[in-house]
Amino acid sequence: MYNVMSPKAEEFINHEEVLESLAYAEANKNNRELIEKILEKAKERKGLSHREAAVLLDCGLEDKNQEIFALAQQIKKDFYGNRIVMFAPLYLSNYCINGCEYCPYHLKNKHIARKKLTQEEVVKEVMALQDMGHKRLALEAGEDPVHNPIEYILECIDTIYSIKHKNGAIRRVNVNIAATTVENYRKLKEAGIGTYILFQETYHKESYEKLHPTGPKHDYAYHTEAMDRAMDGGIDDVGLGVLFGLNNYRYDFTGILMHAEHLERYKGVGPHTISVPRLRRADDIDPDVFDNGISDEIFEKIVACIRIAVPYTGMIVSTRESKACREKVLHLGISQISGASRTSVGGYVEPEPEEENSAQFDVSDNRTLDEVVRWLMEMGYVPSFCTACYREGRTGDRFMSLLKSGQIVNCCHPNALMTLKEYLEDYASQGTKEIGDKLIEKELEVITNPKVKERVMEYLANIHSGQRDFRF
Ligand code: SF4
Ligand code: SF4
Question: What is this structure's pTM?
């Protein structure tokens, strides 16, 4: 039985409820009256139920589809302005005891060299990331209690936060590691992590079990209920994601929204972010063997419908996607992107020769961070290296209430300008710096509160004269 308030995965992601929602969406895909009603509700910017969102995803009326895209763009603008938060993944270890069929780190893959960073190597990788200008990382590691126990992850987090190299600093470490216990989540919280990220891959239990034939990840319920345990351990910013291409996209779209509803209703805080990765080629993995691949058009529609359904949830797209595709989805709802990512262990210090490809997936966007920053600014976006909220204790429901009241923008915009200024002073090429300084000048005009504006101008001048780390 479907029960959003149940602690059991099979009840809050109830298979029959997903199927009924999909049948409802299919039956109503040309129902103009219903679609208009849903769009009217969506315009209130309070979100939609998974069933309503599924109808929009299936909508077959061209004019209404245009309205869906326009509304997604408007909501993106209202909630997130023109800021795009930047981050980079850091791969700590590719040892893994799971058998995920779509990931080259699966236990049986003997082609790739297994590597785990030592603390000295962590320092070197982080310095390389700091030298690019990154301030926010997402840690990645396979599941292996012998090679990557929680103590190893905690030690790496400590090391990362301790490195102060030139003007560099990693100010927020998000963590993407396997589902674990409440006790371990508590340890991660104490270590000062930002968001705990765990991709569901697919919400379809039968497919999930087939795709994860061996290892602890095979346990669908343990994996799906992980976010509840993370919240019980005190982590209140959690990041959801599915790997589009593994299973029917309509099913997983509905599943991820049901998961978001469950967290919001049962735990009182919805997901902090939703990631929308698509399956990519990698060693021992051929995406063509999975027949659920989705086109760019469907991908854009998914992004737009998630933006409308959960306006308060940040959305992330990685370098799995090409520049052209990222360009399209940015304005539809994406609020965070990675830049200059290396998806192999140790890849920032020593990029791998092609013949030794041990990356978790092939990167489609291979540009440097400077190129990505410049590209964003040329499109009118403000790249932001802001990490202020978690450092100011604005997490979980505190963060959500600021976001819902629209007040967060008073922090986001000034912080974006100041962290961009730091980037321009310390890391940008001359051309990027010129574009950026002009952009900051223009964006200062958007700040309506004269006191805030005055303080931002003062902080910008301080940054120019060498001081760092101002925030609202
Ligand atoms: Fe291991 Fe994660 Fe890859 Fe699965 S997806 S094989 S758990 S690293
Ligand atoms: Fe994110 Fe908070 Fe910074 Fe806004 S102020 S960009 S919500 S960390």
Answer: 0.96
